[in-house]
Design a protein that fits this description.
The protein is an alpha+beta fold. Helices cover about 30% and strands about 35% of the residues.
C-alpha cells in the first residue's frame, strides 16, 4: 500500500508541475476527508479548480481517465464542498470546476471541466 501512495504522489507532482507551467496556481494538495481525497486544488485566474490525478501503467484495461467513475466523481464533489466550507467559501458564490489529469503510460491528458 505504501508503494501505491508513493506512485500516486509521484504522478500528482508531475501533474502539478505541468499545470503550474500552464498558468494555474497551487492552493492545496492531498486534502483528506471522510468521503475521499482531493489530489490538487488550484486556481485558474478567478476559478477554483479541483483536480483528480489518475495513473495507469498502460491502456490494456482502459485509460486512466476512464477510472473516474460517477461514484468517484460524487466523492470528489462532496470533498470539494467540505473543503470550501472549511475555507469559508460559499459553494454557491464561488466559481469552481472539476478537472482530471490522466496519465496512461507515457500519455498525459488534461481534461478541463471533466464533470
Amino acid at each position: 500500500m505504501a508503494n501505491k501512495k508513493l506512485i500516486g504522489r509521484y504522478y500528482e507532482e508531475i501533474a502539478c508541475r505541468y499545470l503550474i507551467g500552464n498558468g494555474l496556481v497551487l492552493i492545496d494538495k492531498n486534502s483528506h476527508y471522510r468521503f475521499g481525497e482531493l489530489d490538487l486544488i488550484m486556481r485558474d485566474k478567478t476559478c477554483l479548480v479541483f483536480i483528480e490525478v489518475r495513473y495507469r501503467k498502460n491502456s490494456c484495461f482502459g485509460s486512466a481517465a476512464m477510472t473516474v467513475t460517477p461514484q468517484k466523481q460524487a466523492k470528489i464533489v462532496k470533498a470539494a464542498q467540505l473543503w470550501m466550507l472549511a475555507e469559508q467559501l460559499n459553494p454557491e458564490q464561488t466559481e469552481y470546476r472539476f478537472d482530471v489529469f490522466a496519465i496512461t503510460g507515457q500519455e498525459q491528458e488534461w481534461i478541463i471541466n471533466a464533470f
